[in-house]
Amino acid sequence: MRKLFSGLNQIAAGLGIALSVAATPAVATDLTFFYPVAVGGPVTKIVDDMAAAFEKEHPGIRVKPVYSGSYQDTITKVLTASKGGDAPHVSVLLSTDMYTLIDEDAIVPFDELARSDEDRAWMQGFFPGFMKNSQTGGKTWGIPFQRSTVVMYWNKDLFKAAGLDPERPPQTWQELVDYGRKLTQRDASGKVTTWGVQVPSSGFPYWLFQTFTTQAGVELMNTAGTETYFDKPEVIEALQYWVDLSRKHGVHPQGVVEWGTTPKDFFERKAAIIYTTTGNLTNIRNNAGFDFGVAMLPAGKQRGTPTGGGNFHVFKRATAEEREAAMKFVKWMTAPQRAAEWAIATGYVAVSPAAWETDTMKKYVADFPAPTVARDQLQYAVAELSTHENQRVTKALNDGLQAALTGTKTPAQAMQDAQREAERILRPYR
């Protein structure tokens, strides 16, 4: 699962969630809620407690959270259940699954669930950057919940040791190389003990790659999800830059860098600068034994990042009564106060401007301003790669990226091959 949850003890108290549940009426509306987490632990307790608090305020509705594995596991289970007539009523899935869910006729647009002016105002209340992966064809198919951008973390102690200003991270692609050279450390035998820069390339390489392509001034797909542009010169330029960080400049590990171990490498001072999700912010805050900074990503031709993370979706199999209950649940979970508390607990970006205006969030960022970085970076954000047949198209790109990073193909050949495969997959949708 992309968004790692760690170090979330004392969350229930921080959320101020009441655990007692009021007695439910004899007849209640039951909702099955698929949530993408692979194992039990603090995050499941948070979600359980939130469901209990919702039930207390809505005694006619019962919510059953089902912890359905990774995002990939969850979309597979959801689609299988939908075909068998047993889909959940509501689920959090990757925002990029939107076209797949529409093509499978699995979900309903929230426009059909919005009955009042208040409902419609709520739908307009989220950051526009997060709605780019939530809307298509003039309809809203997903509601932002646990959303993110890629940000840069740096070890201030290692900056000081390298003679760099610990309060000034690199601002451009060239500065990232220059800083990386000063920060990369080797032992007496020449073996690298600390890499200057580390950008993970397993799990979600396309997502990290989109940071470079956006900064190169190009997007990877059209807004209809029917075309990709993997072989554009700017895309190849972006991949060449990523490859050059290791093979030309020697400031980045060669080959495939693991997503899951990158925060640990940062904690262990094996990497001075890392790129990862803002969803790792709470994890890093709780586990880094040193002073660290969080910043927007360095600019190429411009600044940029893709958005990421999960949206709420309501499924078509639900009855009218269940859809109404699901709408109430999604509205409750994304209300400003709850969005602020969820962001503080996890490190995700609070999804609405109103959440940032709550006293809870204002107090939090006054003491710890790092979360504002991802929020402010939204002005430079683009939609995460999402197309029809999204998993197959994404795999074509991921395979190309890893071929280039491991040196089995040139960046140009890798992207030309990926584009050829994407065009073959998407041809029926054009």
From TrEMBL:
Keywords: Signal. Transmembrane segments: none annotated. It is found in: Periplasm. Coiled coil: none annotated. The keyword Transferase does not apply. Its main location: periplasm. Pfam families: SBP_bac_8. Residues 1-28 form the signal peptide. GO terms for cellular component: periplasmic space. The keyword Signal applies. Belongs to the bacterial solute-binding protein 1 family. This is ABC transporter substrate-binding protein. It comes from Thauera humireducens.
